[in-house]
Amino acid sequence: MKPAIKDLMDDHQVILRMLRALNGICLLLGEGKTVPSADLDAVLDFIKTFADYCHHAKEEDLLFPAMGEVGFPREGGPVAVMLMEHEQGR
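-> structure tokens emitted (90 positions)
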């Protein structure tokens, strides 16, 4: 596997771990329990900084153009779906 793709896949694992932690926070809040605001701030910072600024930037600046070079259209198909998901996340 090429190192750049492995790096993106590793990023996905880190993001999934944070999403599991966020799910735990949501469950606590759903039970009426208190969650420290610092924990919520940390999750938000992670999403903005790591998931969007770092990871999504790698995909949008490197992966998606490379996919376009081998025939994946930017309009429609998987690239368009991933771009839509990035926009929804923002």
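Residues 46 and 67 are 27 Å apart (CA to CA).
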